[in-house]
Structures are given as structure tokens and as C-alpha cells.
Design brief:
Layout: H1 5-10, H2 27-44, H3 49-59, H4 65-72, H5 76-86, H6 100-107, H7 109-123, H8 131-152, H9 162-167, H10 171-179, H11 189-192, H12 198-206, H13 210-220, H14 225-232, H15 237-243, H16 245-265, H17 272-279, H18 282-287, H19 291-313
Helix pairs in contact: 2-10, 2-13, 3-4, 3-7, 5-7, 6-7, 8-10, 8-16, 8-19, 10-13, 13-14, 14-16, 15-16
This protein binds fe (ii) ion (FE2) (2 copies).
């Protein structure tokens, strides 16, 4: 178990805890079960030191490019993947970047920080097969779709760290699969591939869900606060809206991308009824979507999903 695990595992952070009363289980019982899962997840998956150091350097307003290149260069696979992802069409750079320095100049240090953090986090799950690979693919797909939605609606300025939050939104499921307390196969394919269904079953099974588990582990990995909060609240949009507009918009886009990704993962063509349902949903209204525009950008969503899912499944 890592050095930080026991301390974090003892204290479940109130603001990340969903706090709903479950008549079947005492809150204390659920919290101690969550604390144990957070402790084992952090023990099983210590965050890579190279990425941690690079994230620290990239957070400095006077970023030292040479130092970033030197640190990231210690992990050649991370370097290759970082450059490939930084040049992805979804990031809409006009010229390709050949070095980390160029990537930072073109995308900004915050976006490169997001890519390093996301690649390092998802890289910890690259060996997963079956259900794990399906969830990992879904996470990457949601990141691509969320990014494309934000671009199409000109919402980039109102969303901070959206790509990273979307990429990590279901990391709790990946962690939970490894901790092994929940038998996901028991839930059936219908539940696994439906939005807003798995967390209910998880709470029934163990008293907490993947959103709250993921958020606590991401906090242990020192991820940005808005990412931690968006992950914690992605199945409780009302709480996100109450807290902060930027957080509310991040959660809205993650939830819309989540529904769209499940549709795309099934290789189903876009149908008018589905697009209308998404555009007219609570989230669709919140983000200001309309059916015509969503239909028009659909091919871009498909391309963004394919591109990001492809980039994150290779290493
Ligand atoms: Fe989720
Ligand atoms: Fe999801």
C-alpha cells in the first residue's frame, strides 16, 4: 500500500461523498467500505512518478520546457503517445508538433498537462481485457465526444479541464474491477452499457458507487479539483449545478457525451429520435443544444470518438 493510502482511507471527504441515505445500509458502513476500496485502489495503482513530476512542471506559469522534455523523456512510451495525441485532429491544431515544447506552444500548457495526466492514468489500465477494455474504451470515447461537443457549441471557455474529467469519469469502474469487491458481470450487459444504471447497482451491492470511488482516488493522485468534483458528481448533475457554473457545464457535457458514446459503441447509426431525445433532455437544454445543430455535428462526434478511443487504446 502506498504511503498516502492509510491517511486518505481513514477520511472520506465530505464534499465528494454523495451522502444519500440508504435505508438498507448505514452511512458509516458504506463509508468504511468505500475507505477500504480507496485504500486498496491507491495501493494497487500508485500514480506514475514521471507523470506527476511533469504535471508539477506544467503547472508552473513560467514552464521550463527543457525540464518537462527531460522528465517525460524518461518514459519513451509516454512521450510517443503524448506527441501522437497532441497531434490528434480533435485538438484542432493547424500545424503538427514535433516536440513537447511545440505541443505546449500550440495547445497551451494546461491542455498538455491534461494529456500527460490522462495518458498516465489510463496507461495504468492498458492491460485490462473484456469488460475492463470496454470501460476504458468508453472513457476515451466520452472524452472525444465531450471535446467535440464543447468545440461545436463554442463552450471551450466555459469548461476547464473537460477533456481530462471526461476521460476519467468512469475510472472508478476500472479501479473497482481491480479491487474486485463488485461482480460486474452479475449486472448484465443491459445495465453495463446504459447511462445512469451501474451506479445504482453498485450502491445496492457495496453502499458506494464508481463516481465517489473514482473521485477519492483521483484526489489521492492530485488531479485538479474540478476534475475530481466532476467525476464525483457525474451521476448527480443537480449537485454539480448548485456548486458552480463551470462544474455544472463540465458535468452536463460529460453526461451528454456519455449517452452518445453508448450509442456509438453499439455501432448504431444516428437516428432522429435519439438525437431529438438527447438535444431535448435536461442536459441538452442546459447546454443550449438543438436538434438541427446536433444532427449537423454528428459526423464530427463519430470521428472524435474514433480518434480518441484509438489513441488511448494504443501504447
Ligand atoms: Fe459513470
Ligand atoms: Fe460513463
Amino acid at each position: 500500500m502506498s504511503a498516502v493510502a492509510p491517511k486518505l482511507a481513514e477520511t472520506i471527504q465530505e464534499e465528494l461523498w454523495f451522502g444519500d441515505e440508504d435505508p438498507m445500509r448505514s452511512q458509516l458502513e458504506a463509508q468504511s467500505s468505500l475507505a477500504a476500496a480507496v485504500g486498496s485502489a491507491l495501493g494497487l495503482k500508485p500514480f506514475p512518478a514521471v507523470a506527476s513530476r511533469a504535471m508539477q512542471l506544467l503547472s508552473d506559469p513560467d514552464v521550463d520546457f527543457k525540464a518537462v522534455e527531460k522528465v517525460v523523456g524518461q518514459d519513451p512510451a509516454l512521450t510517443t503517445q503524448l506527441m501522437r495525441t497532441a497531434n490528434a485532429a480533435v485538438f484542432a491544431t493547424t500545424k503538427s508538433a514535433d516536440t513537447i515544447h511545440q505541443a505546449v506552444m500550440r495547445l497551451g500548457s494546461r491542455q498538455v498537462y491534461n494529456l500527460v495526466a490522462g495518458l498516465a492514468a489510463m496507461g495504468m489500465f492498458r492491460d485490462l481485457r473484456g469488460l475492463g477494455a470496454y470501460v476504458r474504451d468508453h472513457c476515451a470515447g466520452v472524452a472525444g465526444v465531450a471535446r467535440a461537443l464543447a468545440d461545436s457549441w463554442g463552450l471551450q471557455d466555459g469548461t476547464r479541464d473537460l477533456f481530462l474529467a471526461a476521460l476519467l469519469h468512469d475510472v472508478g469502474k476500472l479501479l473497482s474491477l481491480q479491487v474486485g469487491e463488485i461482480d460486474y458481470h452479475r449486472f448484465g450487459r443491459e445495465v453495463i452499457s446504459a447511462p445512469d444504471a451501474v451506479h445504482v447497482k453498485e450502491r445496492e451491492a457495496v453502499g458506494y458507487d464508481h463516481a465517489v470511488l473514482g473521485a477519492h482516488v483521483l484526489s489521492g493522485w492530485r488531479m485538479p479539483e474540478i476534475v475530481v468534483q466532476a467525476v464525483a458528481l457525474h451521476h448527480q448533475p443537480g449537485r454539480a449545478y448548485e456548486r458552480d457554473a463551470q462544474l455544472g457545464l463540465n458535468v452536463t457535457l460529460i453526461r451528454l457525451a456519455n449517452r452518445i458514446d453508448y450509442k456509438l459503441q453499439r455501432n448504431e447509426p444516428a437516428d432522429d429520435a435519439f438525437i431529438a431525445e438527447v438535444a431535448q433532455s435536461g442536459e441538452g437544454n442546459y447546454a443550449g443544444f438543438d436538434v438541427t445543430q446536433l444532427t449537423a455535428v454528428w459526423p464530427q462526434l463519430v470521428a472524435a470518438r474514433r480518434e480518441v478511443a484509438g489513441a488511448f487504446s494504443k501504447r
